[in-house]
Amino acid sequence: MGNKNKYLLIYLCILCVVVGSLVQLAQAKEQNSSLTQESDSILAQAEIDQMLAPIALYPDTLLSHILVASTYPLEVVQAARWRKANPSLDAEQVLDDPATQGWDPSVQALVPFNDLLQTLSDDLKWLQELGEAFLFNEEQVLSSIQALRQKAYALGTLKDSEYLNVELQDSEVIIEPVQKEVVYVPYYDTRVVYGSWWWHHRQPHRWHRPLHSVLVSGFYWSLGFHIRPSFYFGGFFWPKRHVFADYNYRRDSTKHWSNHKTKTHKVKIKESQRWAHNSKHRRGVQYHKSGQKVVYVNSSKNGRLAIVKDNKGGSKHNKKRVIKYDNHSQKLNSKRVKTALQTKNTQQGKSKKYAKSKHETHQKQLNVNSNYGKQHTNVNKQTLTDKKKSKSQQHANKKANKVDKSQYQAANYNRQKQVKSTKQSYKTSRSNSNRQNYKAQNKSGKTNRNSQNRHQ
Questions:
Q1: Can you give the pTM of this predicted structure?
Q2: Which three-class secondary structure state does DSSP give residue 161?
Q3: pLDDT tens, 64-83?
Q4: What span, in angstroms and rounded, lies between the C-alpha atoms of 356 and 41?
Q5: Burial code of 372-401, b = ≥16 C-beta within 10 A, e = fewer?
């Protein structure tokens, strides 16, 4: 009994040690995961502030077009190359000709700003990262823009000038051009206008100013660009942190400005006019999120949906998980995950059934065509044999006609020869009779003369 109690105590001690070590490991994993999540969120915010630094102080409408165009990076590159290949276009042609290229309206709106367009095209990696951040974290991007503007506004570097109007409305900083017909693009040193940068490991992104620019109020300004009323079809709806786009206004607006004296130009905002991403203008460029390929799905009002492909398995056994990037950066619950996967599976099943039915109809059509082809070939063969028979019969008829013709010609020749011979014999007989009659007449004449001479 004593030995059994000893062994039992030893086993209990070992079990307690193992359980305690497992509990410590689980706590350590939870702490590490929470730390990594916090560090990822901080890193994501640092990256967003870094990306937005050179454009956060642009006029609202121009900035909204840049954000939308960044989700279509290939079209931005095409527009920049097209503008570089056509340097001799005048102002009207620059506004009219991009409509024939089939680009997104926001990309077309950036074509008059040649220096800005070339900068966006050259800094392609930054452009793609900005588009991905805006596409899946629209609210966070717009909140970061306001945070950057408020820092510059509080520091005094962002203020009214002869090129920009800066207003503070309900704690939101609104930036608009002074003249509605002319838009100026500001260039500034991002290390100065925001004060001391708060992300030491992520310094602000900055661009070089254009060659022909003037320093006014701490910003560099190049020549202004004359635009049309249709330029203002998009902008920001700051209370709900989203971009709006009224394409009907863009289509129906006039090409020329009215004679009203109002400087700024505003478009009436409706909730139904919220901008929606059009994957057609993506032109085959893959979507990425945090270094992973994603399948973009345009969801309802709550946000945008992306199915992230897990690259651990093979092509057949790839697992897929659904991630929701909503307006409050919350996770998608399990019900929505299931419904999203179910809808995708049903769509795949429908596509497979459609492909199968299409294949069956194609096979039926091929069989019908083959049967028709066989019948057609039989008919062709019969017609060919009939043609051959008719040709041989025609040849035989021609031969018979030739024989009959030769016989007719021989008979005709004999007939003509006989006629000639009869004519000849008739001529000879007639000539002989004529000679005899002539001789007889001569004899009678001579006898008559002799008798007359005798009587005399």
A1: 0.59
A2: coil
A3: 999 999 999 999 999 999 99
A4: 46
A5: eeeeeeeeeeeeeeeeeeeeeeeeeeeeee
